[in-house]
């Protein structure tokens, strides 16, 4: 493990810092310091500034609007933005840029890349995700959304659910069943569909904190051109899974920064509440600190592996389980420190509904209530539940015998 | 109370707790002849009401009047049965100023109107003032359905009745004991409901071609949550019968922990649907967090128990054969 | 001086608590009880030989005969009297002779399924003249008990047993063993329960040294060992059903006995330790779980006393016991700190700590119990 970055990467770091120095307000406290709609608006403007200065999609080839840089520079950018308490882009860009953009770079046809990638970076198109279905959650490969070829069009019938920020989408990428005569992983195709399209309806789902973060998407005889397939027909499962390596490398570098910033807020909360000298609270804070440090070192290993081998090692399987279960402990501690205040909602609510609140957020009850109830508790459910993660660890990494499965 | 009577009581209480109604719970209970039921067998009646209240996640103010009744009873002052008891405010404590005026900051479940309001100033001082001397502000609560109000004011000495010394602390502690028992009942009701419905859900939800409840990972989560709830239920029953402070303290400790744990394990079984407004679960989750914080959250109560054991060097036994 | 105490009978007491108070009075005034108060064993073998005296004292004075039927040499009263005796011994910081714990599990079964054996043998067992072990598990039949293979074949007026048993608690210190063997076909239905004499040529018993250095368990090797027909408990093929019946005692009455020990050990810890708020939550947690276990097993003991048929819900008692046992010893160890690790006089406590780690394994593993509760109490689906 070599913890030094290359001279090229360090040069890029300097460039990012100069950009941030020139473009961030002088008294910048972090996105968390802005209240509700203000944060949303700021993030929207900021992503335009990032785009105009060539800081979005930097690993994409130049001909599609990217910078042709390496994964390492992407990691450096992520680190610097996290340290400066600035988001990379809007919340919806997680599916738009990170998921679909990167998938197209890897699997798209020349025509698809030229058509979609520049529009993703400019913000003209906003892609949302259509993977899960009511009957396909943990068992994602059991997708039922039917896609049938009719001439030069695919005809789609079925339903998607848990589409993050679905109401903001101008297009949706979908996993659909195109062959049900083969094993369930093999008959899936990755498709692109504009919104609005006749027969497609998007309905919001209210989360337990009362916000409309997710949507259901209903598709009835929706027609899309055959050209809207990404990757080979019936190999959509492989297409969808190819993103993991890229995502994990960047997360490995940025997660410890965000979780450290969150821990600092909790330590401040303990001070504010006069609990900082309480031995049991100190014990728990120290435990949290160790976990964040472990997360950092685990991150270095994952990062080294991804950059060196281009593939994920065993540590990557631990990563999701590690941060998601840790997050429930620290947010629980924050709620304990709030005491009776945790019964009453006060102040700004978080902008984002997964992982930590933005750095710089004040220690008001709304921040912690929302992060505790929604962000942290859902962390062990989304993107592979803790049970699924443990099965992967046990079976693929530790070599324990497979759990008996039917219908697979 | 025999089993048939108890079943009938449960049916009518469930109806009262779940029907949409703007009439205060106390008045609707009065129509049931509730006072007679309580007079006849207070432990069973209240245990049943509060367990059902947890089960139905009803937002009616049942605890407020009970706290007042317990305090009035302990003080031997029947006038205080109509009082509103001010609990800890997140914004600051109530205090007696040097000139004898009372600075009030407290949280209540029902606006006091012109009824007396009792607040705790310190371990040996209770302040009693009229509700119309205070400002009452509705709070945006974590629960969302359970109404809570903040009472504030600076009441001149002439309008403050002060209860002092051992009288004050004995009465307040008696009220806390009664309240802890009732909240423990409610938490147990929540936990039992959440476990039963999560167990049922895992039998209906199909993934990988079979009900997810067949997976040991989920069976063991729900089973272990159930175990703690059974322990909490036994402690709560005992605390009701014995009425002593120590068993109410232990009962609320275990009930808070059991309900929180039941919610955590159940939510993991529900998966994404448990994070939506569409499923009933979120009401139980949020109610649990609010109830646990009333009259001491389970962690601080555990510490209180531990400190008591260490300093008294006595480990009491709850319940004899 | 020994104060003359009349032989107690069940009708002398309004409640088991009244009996407990009288027993406490007896034990604190009778000279013969003195050597056992605060007794700390050097080893399990030492404890076994020393405590036969206490067992004899309790029997001869009549106290341990309460809670057992007259037909079997008891003095009447329901099982709550036995539970109250254990509670009193813990209160007095007196050890509970190990045979009592085995007896609590095995004898209720005999009373129902083989009264001829309990009538003949209970007095000797209660007094400590006779000692029994339980031999169910085999090297290849642990959690999956129904797959056990020890063979039982008819031979004249009895049966011949061949096979191997393991994890038999105190097997090497026992004269007889209740044993589960295969008399018929595969699965649950081919099993039969018998009471076998261990001191015979076809049997070899080897102690197994446990983590704490003590010989808690034994292996039992059976090579054509003999068991007469009248030593069959219940009927041929009824073994599994009887084992299941036994479990309600193992989980209920045993749980009550254990919570008494947890309370007593916490009491000893708070007497030894220096108050320190750092450990308040851990101690509070252990106490709260032990209190929950106490009331849960209290209800179970009361149901057993009313002769109610218990179901899979008794697994809850065992699961709560596991949580309470682990939490109690974790808290005691943390609170006593370096003293716990180094004080020579606390070696017995360290041994108990080590043994507490087995709580999620012995008497039906935590996993098996949770599966039982999930499927049979909460109605979650079976695979």
Order of helices and strands of chain A: HHHHHEEEEEEEEHHHHHH
As laid out across the biggest beta sheet of chain B, the strand order is: 1-4-5-8
The count of DSSP E runs of length 2 or more, i.e. the number of strands of chain B, is: 10
- Rg calc of chain A: 22 Å
Question: How does the major sheet of chain B shape up?
Answer: 4 strands, mixed
Largest interface: which pair?
A: B-C, 51 and 56 residues
Mean pLDDT metric of chain A: 92
What CATH calls the topology of the largest domain in chain A is: Butyryl-CoA Dehydrogenase, subunit A, domain 3
Helix content of chain B: 55-70%
Low-confidence stretches of chain B: none
List the helices and strands and how they pair.
The complex is a heterotrimer of chains A (408), B (321) and C (383).
Chain A: H1 7-23, H2 36-52, H3 71-83, H4 93-107, H5 110-122, E1 127-130, E2 146-150, E3 153-164, E4 171-177, E5 188-194, E6 200-205, E7 214-225, E8 229-230, H6 236-241, H7 244-272, H8 279-309, H9 314-338, H10 365-378, H11 386-397
Parallel strand pairs in A: 1-4
Antiparallel strand pairs in A: 2-3, 3-7, 4-5, 5-8, 6-7
Helix pairs in contact in A: 1-3, 3-7, 4-5, 7-8, 7-9, 8-9, 9-10, 9-11
Chain B: H1 3-18, H2 25-31, H3 34-40, H4 42-56, H5 63-75, E1 84-86, E2 95-96, E3 102-108, E4 116-122, E5 125-130, E6 135-138, E7 149-155, E8 161-164, H6 165-204, E9 206-207, E10 210-211, H7 216-242, H8 245-270, H9 281-293, H10 298-312
Parallel strand pairs in B: 1-4
Antiparallel strand pairs in B: 2-3, 3-7, 4-5, 5-8, 6-7, 9-10
Helix pairs in contact in B: 1-4, 3-4, 4-6, 5-6, 6-7, 6-8, 6-9, 7-8, 8-9, 8-10
Chain C: H1 16-29, H2 44-60, H3 80-91, H4 98-113, H5 115-127, E1 132-135, E2 151-155, E3 158-169, E4 176-182, E5 191-197, E6 203-208, E7 217-228, E8 232-233, H6 239-272, H7 280-305, H8 315-342, H9 347-356, H10 366-377
Parallel strand pairs in C: 1-4
Antiparallel strand pairs in C: 2-3, 3-7, 4-5, 5-8, 6-7
How would you sum up this structure, described in words?
The complex is a heterotrimer of chains A (408), B (321) and C (383). With 408 residues, chain A is α+β, with helices and mostly antiparallel strands. Chain A folds into 3 domains: 84 residues, Butyryl-Coa Dehydrogenase, subunit A, domain 1 (Orthogonal Bundle); 108 residues, Butyryl-CoA Dehydrogenase, subunit A, domain 2, CATH 2.40.110; 155 residues, Butyryl-CoA Dehydrogenase, subunit A, domain 3. Chain A is built from 11 helices and 8 strands. The longest helix of chain A has 31 residues. Chain B has 321 residues and is of the alpha+beta class. Chain B has 3 domains: 54 residues; 90 residues, Butyryl-CoA Dehydrogenase, subunit A, domain 2; 144 residues, Butyryl-CoA Dehydrogenase, subunit A, domain 3 (Up-down Bundle). Chain B has 10 helices and 10 strands. Chain B has a 4-stranded mixed β-sheet. In chain B, a hairpin with a 2-residue loop joins strand 4 and strand 5. Chain B starts with a helix and ends in a 9-residue tail after the last helix. Chain C folds into 3 domains: 121 residues, Acyl-CoA dehydrogenase/oxidase, N-terminal domain (Butyryl-Coa Dehydrogenase, subunit A, domain 1), CATH 1.10.540.10; 105 residues, Beta Barrel (Butyryl-CoA Dehydrogenase, subunit A, domain 2); 138 residues, Up-down Bundle (Butyryl-CoA Dehydrogenase, subunit A, domain 3), CATH 1.20.140.10. Chain C has 10 helices and 8 strands. In chain C, the strands form 2 sheets. A 4-stranded mixed β-sheet of chain C has the order 1-4-5-8. Chains A and C meet through helix 8 of A and loops of C.
